[in-house]
Amino acid sequence: MSARVVQPAEGLVGTARLPGDKSISHRLAILGALAEGASELVNYSPGRDCRSTLDCLRALSVRIATEDADGVPKVSVEGRGLGGLEAPAGELDAGNSGSTLRMLAGVLAAHPFESVLTGDASLRRRPMRRVIEPLERMGAALEARAGEFPPLRIRGPAGAGLRPIDYVLPVASAQVKTAVLLAGLHAPGTTSVEEPARTRDHTEIALGAFGASVTRERRRVAVHGQTRLRGGRFVIPNDLSAAAFFLVAGLVLPKSNLVLPQVGLNPTRAALLDFLLPQGAQIKVLDVETQQGELRGNLHVRAGNKLKGGVVAGALTAKLIDELPVLAVLGTQTEEGLRLRDAAELRVKESDRLHAIAENLRRLGARVEEHPDGLDIPGRQRLRGARVESFGDHRIAMAMAVAGLVAEGETTIEDADCADVSFPGFFEVMEALRE
Q: What's this model's pTM, rounded to 2 decimal places?
């Protein structure tokens, strides 16, 4: 485990080199494996999580090739068609990726062989009951440690296969929604998922792009099963959740003048901009276009007036779930601070993110009040450099790097290279932009 030292900065200036969208990359790789024909995925996320998805698919006999074309990662997937995956020789290792494990659980639930999905120590502590329950209702057999923790042992039904279901999610979760829809692809008839709050819709968009029959009405999405998928070429936008760290740093460091290129602006992900812009954030959205159903554009960020701060609660919490660690850092620099609620989900991410945020901000001299489902973070606080922990969590490591840019004096982040899970080279990109 390696530490990183972050020195304070006056601004970030230039154009940030960002990775491809992690959420979209997972989904396109899996659907490419289930399609007929080849798929080419340009700007595939280079992070360890998305590599775990490729490794698991290879273990299921999917032919995958990777290359770096002028600095842009490209992945070629030879599809095997619905039901065409083969039994793996051993356990499928999802590494640190809950997305890989949950989504592949939906696919494997439709195959009549036995498979085991596992991961690293952090992933094996993350509860999976919410994905197990609907897949069991569809007819798959799943076993888990203590009934809910990985490893997951999965066997799909023989004979008639899975049953379609109409499922109401008890808690909003794009990953669980995706698992059910991917299982539903293999079932006859229509499988639907109704959400308590709208979550990111990359799965629905990707299904349509591959030729699946998908319908959406309010918070209900349905897929008609056993429709043949067709491979194709996809250009993945840059990751807004990765851009968020530079977005926040650019807003709070006084000499910033920063461009974040070709960032995904999917409306179900753009809540970050919707939250920041009314507070006075100087963010211009330029050159907006849609490719294969996904909106993208360039973000031009400049520091300006102090942001007001505000409340993140209810449906907004679900929409900002990946950005909350860095928004907590931003909260210390706003006029009114940040009040976060309905975020108990953060306690079962790669780390207990509520505790990790509170602990690290306190080490940096901030006042933070921790609640079972959230945090109260006063604004107008001065941060002082200190030694902080990543807790093995990529988003905590990157959020603390932003805090280190703002703090007075040197900040050391323990086990900082866990940022490679989603953003290899994050610290180098940040240093190259330092003013």
A: 0.94
